[in-house]
Amino acid sequence: MSESIAADEHERLRIPETRVQVLAQAVRALAEGLEDIPSQDPDREAQAARGARLAHELLLSQKL
Q1: Are 33 and 51 spatial neighbours (Cβ–Cβ below 8 Å)?
Q2: Who's near 59: CB < 8 A, 6+ residues apart?
Q3: Is the CB of residue 54 less than 8 Å from the CB of residue 31?
Q4: What is the pLDDT along the chain (64 residues), one digit of tens a residue?
Q5: 36 touches 44 (CB < 8 A)
Q6: pTM, rounded to two decimals
Q7: Is 18 left (phi over 0), alpha (psi -120 to 50) or beta?
Protein backbone atom coordinates (compact mmCIF):
# COMPACT_ATOMS: atom_id res chain seq x y z
CA MET A 1 0.00 0.00 0.00
CA SER A 2 2.77 2.49 0.88
CA GLU A 3 4.54 1.75 -2.44
CA SER A 4 1.37 2.75 -4.28
CA ILE A 5 1.07 5.96 -2.28
CA ALA A 6 4.74 6.79 -2.93
CA ALA A 7 4.30 6.15 -6.66
CA ASP A 8 1.19 8.36 -6.77
CA GLU A 9 2.98 11.14 -4.93
CA HIS A 10 5.98 10.83 -7.23
CA GLU A 11 3.70 11.14 -10.27
CA ARG A 12 1.92 14.17 -8.76
CA LEU A 13 5.26 15.91 -8.28
CA ARG A 14 6.62 14.95 -11.69
CA ILE A 15 3.92 16.83 -13.59
CA PRO A 16 4.51 20.29 -12.04
CA GLU A 17 8.29 19.78 -12.17
CA THR A 18 8.07 19.06 -15.91
CA ARG A 19 5.89 22.11 -16.46
CA VAL A 20 8.28 24.36 -14.55
CA GLN A 21 11.18 23.06 -16.65
CA VAL A 22 9.29 23.77 -19.88
CA LEU A 23 8.32 27.24 -18.66
CA ALA A 24 11.96 27.94 -17.82
CA GLN A 25 13.00 26.83 -21.33
CA ALA A 26 10.33 29.07 -22.87
CA VAL A 27 11.50 32.07 -20.84
CA ARG A 28 15.10 31.33 -21.84
CA ALA A 29 14.08 31.19 -25.53
CA LEU A 30 12.30 34.54 -25.21
CA ALA A 31 15.24 36.13 -23.42
CA GLU A 32 17.72 34.87 -26.01
CA GLY A 33 15.44 36.15 -28.78
CA LEU A 34 15.45 39.61 -27.25
CA GLU A 35 19.14 39.61 -26.36
CA ASP A 36 21.30 42.12 -28.21
CA ILE A 37 24.51 40.39 -29.28
CA PRO A 38 26.77 42.84 -31.17
CA SER A 39 28.76 40.11 -32.95
CA GLN A 40 25.64 38.61 -34.54
CA ASP A 41 23.40 39.69 -37.39
CA PRO A 42 21.55 42.87 -36.42
CA ASP A 43 18.18 41.52 -37.63
CA ARG A 44 16.64 41.79 -34.17
CA GLU A 45 13.07 41.36 -35.38
CA ALA A 46 13.84 37.97 -36.91
CA GLN A 47 15.81 36.96 -33.82
CA ALA A 48 12.92 37.98 -31.53
CA ALA A 49 10.44 36.15 -33.75
CA ARG A 50 12.53 32.96 -33.60
CA GLY A 51 12.67 33.18 -29.80
CA ALA A 52 8.93 33.75 -29.55
CA ARG A 53 8.20 30.89 -31.94
CA LEU A 54 10.44 28.51 -30.00
CA ALA A 55 8.84 29.53 -26.70
CA HIS A 56 5.40 29.00 -28.20
CA GLU A 57 6.33 25.56 -29.54
CA LEU A 58 7.75 24.54 -26.16
CA LEU A 59 4.54 25.55 -24.40
CA LEU A 60 2.36 23.82 -26.98
CA SER A 61 4.40 20.63 -26.68
CA GLN A 62 3.36 20.39 -23.03
CA LYS A 63 -0.20 21.67 -23.61
CA LEU A 64 0.46 24.75 -21.47
Answers
A1: yes
A2: 22, 23, 26
A3: no
A4: 567 777 788 888 898 899 999 999 999 999 998 887 666 666 888 888 999 999 999 999 988 7
A5: yes
A6: 0.72
A7: alpha
